[in-house]
Amino acid sequence: MSLLNIFNIANTYLTDILIKLNLGEDSANLVASYSLLIINIFIATLLFYLTRWILRKFILQYIRKSETTWDDYLLEHRIFHKASYLIPAFFLGWTINPIFSDLEGAKNILLLILSIYKIVIITNIFTAVLDTAVHVYNMQSESKKLPIKGFAQVVKLLFWVIAIILIISSIIDKNPTSILAGLGAVSAVLLLVFKDPILGFVGGIQLAAFDMVKEGDWISMPKYNADGTVIDISISTVKVQNWDNTISTLPTYSLISDSVKNWRGMEESEGRRIKRSVLLDTHSIKFCTPEMLERFSKFEFLDDYIFQTEERIQKSNKKIDTEKKLVLKGRRQTNLGVFRAYLINYLENHPDINTSLTTMVRQLEPTEKGIPMEIYVFSKVKSWVAYESIQSDIFDHILAIIPEFELSVFQEPSGADFRKILK
User: pLDDT digit string (tens) for 125-145?
Assistant: First the structure.
């Protein structure tokens, strides 16, 4: 005897009992059918928990003991858990026909509810499988070169659009293709509603195709107050963890349409640039006396420079006719020039400076605040904290050595300076 025959017999038996209890035939049939439905819901619930127990007892334990990692993501995204919800739906769908064979209206409503329930559960399973595939892909070393999270979100959106179309077609009892044909009339509205996802999807394709920005990149976008590491790129938004640990959220398409500074090139290069200047007071610049040159020649990095430079100057000055014109027309070393030569040699011998890249000390255009002496070099170390430490050490030394060349740093007068003048 099949299970369906059992439900038919049970339905007939309950109906006869209710008729003997002075219920009308229609009322007795209705009560018997819904009573069996409640019993079936109870049985379906038991089947659900039985399925869950079997999964936990055998399949899940096997997955946890396996050496592979991809199957662990099946558990993380609860694929088996979501699939187990289909068991009650299939059981109830199988038993509704014999139970409500005489109640066509109630049967159709219950089957419609079950159909919608199955569509939702199956769509959830598909999205979970897609999330698992994305998770497995992101564990690969090459995944950051082509982030697919945005593509996956578009596919999930399509899953739900198809699910909604199937649900609507089930409710109105029409072919899904006729609904798709009717969407052309509201395409303009759909484009307006899904404008940001569409722009984000296009932007995500461009970002991936041209390798412009990916997760882990350090980017700066002052327009959005974003300056930090990209931690997530989705179909419509990009999350940036700023250096103060705040999170900036910006539209994905803005990475295409707006100006973005990506520091990845620096991180992948052989050095990080140090570009900073010191303002020197113009009143402290002067020609070097023999005594000054003698003292400077004892400085590290300067003995050869002063000797060779002085030799060239002496040869050049022999062309001057009279010594009276030497001060005006002859060549002489200045404390500023010797200081610049010292800085060049100091930086070229610094262990943390990459001299294979541009290493330069230059004077910028004089200003009302003095002459800027700019340091333009590249640090071998690129991590932020160590880089700032190296930069600070270099300028600590520069600021400390400036007075040794009888130069002075320009500084705006403060209240203490004015008090000294008044005294």
Answer: 888 888 888 777 777 655 555
